[in-house]
Amino acid sequence: MPTFTIVLLIITAIVVGITIALYFVGKKQEKKKAEQDAMMEESAQNVSMLIIDKKKMKLKDSGLPEAAIAQTPFYAKGAKMPVIKAKVGPKIMTFLCDPAIFNEIPTKKEVKARVAGLYIISVKGLHGKNETKEEPKKGFRAWMNRRAKSLNQN
Fold first, then answer.
1. Helices (H), 44-133
2. For the segment 117-142, what is each residue's pLDDT rounded down to a tens digit?
3. Domain, as residue range, for 98
4. Is the pTM of this model over 0.90?
């Protein structure tokens, strides 16, 4: 058998092995996430809050309690997370938010939120309609699309 064929078979076997391993790891992570979501739904409560500010920032800069930051894994401490500052009753608190609903949360408005600890699961507006503005996409391709549109208009 030629050397090229042997190398190709070894590489194919390694790729297949990695794919199978990732499949099983993904299934395990899906089960873990489903259990965590169920636990969060059990402990969730409805809270009325005034949203002051929302940003995506690193956990160490967010102003969360040290106990919450200490419990996060090392790889998540450097990642940017959706952080919301809100007034709940007389206290101003910092919350983490589900990334799927981060853009839907209005600022400077009173909302009814479903909260589990320091994590906002869902939000419903209390007064008026929610105005969600889309942030412009970032990146080279988005920049080229914007530039092409502006050149076509001129």
1. 66-71, 74-77
2. 888 998 887 665 655 566 667 889 88
3. 42-125
4. no
